[in-house]
Structures are given as C-alpha cells and as structure tokens.
Design a protein that fits this description.
There is one protein chain. The protein is mostly helical. It has one domain. The chain has one helix and no strands. The protein starts with a helix and ends with a helix. The mean pLDDT is 92.
Length: 55
C-alpha cells in the first residue's frame, strides 16, 4: 500500500469512528424520547379515565 492510501484509510477509519459515535448518541436520544412519549401517553390515559369517571 502506498502512503497516500494508508493516509486515506486512516482518515476513513476516523470518520467511521465518529459516525458510529454519532449513531450511538442518536440511538440513545431516540430511545429516551420513546420512553418519555410512552410515559406521557400513559399519564394522559390515566387522567382521561379519571375525568371520565368523575363526569
């Protein structure tokens, strides 16, 4: 392998590492948001049932 190819390969490896880290962060954000939405939805359903019973 030539020096330029090695340099390019190292640059691509670094970019790949950064993209993997970015994906991991986004996947975690997505999971957290899904949990929040599920909790809010459950809370909303509980309040709606309570209000329906009160009427």
């Amino acid at each position: 392998m030539e020096v330029s190819q090695l340099t390019q390969m190292k640059e691509l490896q670094e970019e790949n590492r950064k993209l993997k880290a970015m994906y991991a962060d986004l996947a975690l954000d997505h999971r957290i948001l899904k949990e929040i939405v599920a909790e809010v939805h459950t809370t909303w359903e509980t309040h709606a049932k309570w209000l329906h019973r009160a009427v």
